[in-house]
Amino acid sequence: MQELLPRAARIGELLKQRQETISVAESSTGGLISAALLSVAGASAYFLGGAVSYTRKSMRETVGVSDDGFAQMKGLTEASALVMARAQQARLGTTWAIAELGAAGPTGSRYGNPAGTTAIAVVGPVEKASVIQTGSADRIANMRAFADAALGLLERAIGAKD
């Protein structure tokens, strides 16, 4: 977690300066993205909420993914992560939302993606999405790597780092 904090601090400071807000929908990172963003003093100025959604039921109930949204989700893809991020942004009415869906390991996803695969997306004034593959089945290392990749994508999307 410690390695995530400098990035989260840059993001948090920029969001506070701009008076922008963020929400999080994460899966295989287990709350690491939210924890990093909440580690910044004054996080209540920008962090509206987050959800760790590990099943379709929780994605429907906590993030607000609709049946139409589920129809667009085909495995660990950029499109799937965008569906999650858009649903979370709409649910909480934030300037930005970030979503992560992954297979941390030691096995792959039910969609056939290998362990070490995550799809992440940021939505807001700009949208960015990416699929990351670590090539590892180490669950804890992948959770950290996925959270770091997600915060990196967020940092680039909001312009905290060029």
Shape: globular
Tell how many strands the DSSP assignment holds. Answer: 5
- The average pLDDT score comes to 94
Catalogue the unreliable spans: none
What would you say this structure looks like, in words?
With 162 residues, the protein is an alpha/beta fold. The protein has a single domain, classed as CinA-like (Maf protein), CATH 3.90.950.20. It is built from 6 helices and 5 strands. A 5-stranded mixed sheet has the order 2-1-3-4-5, sandwiched between helices. Helix 1 packs parallel to helix 6. The longest helix is centred in the C-terminal third of the chain and has 20 residues. It is globular and about 40 Å long. The two termini are 23 Å apart.
Which labels suit this protein?
five-stranded mixed sheet, 162 residues, 43% helix, Maf protein, alpha/beta
A few lines on this structure:
This protein is an alpha/beta fold.
Sequence-ordered SSE layout with sheet pairings:
Layout: H1 5-18, E1 22-26, H2 32-38, E2 47-52, H3 56-63, H4 67-72, H5 78-92, E3 96-103, E4 117-123, E5 128-133, H6 139-158
Parallel strand pairs: 1-2, 1-3
Antiparallel strand pairs: 3-4, 4-5
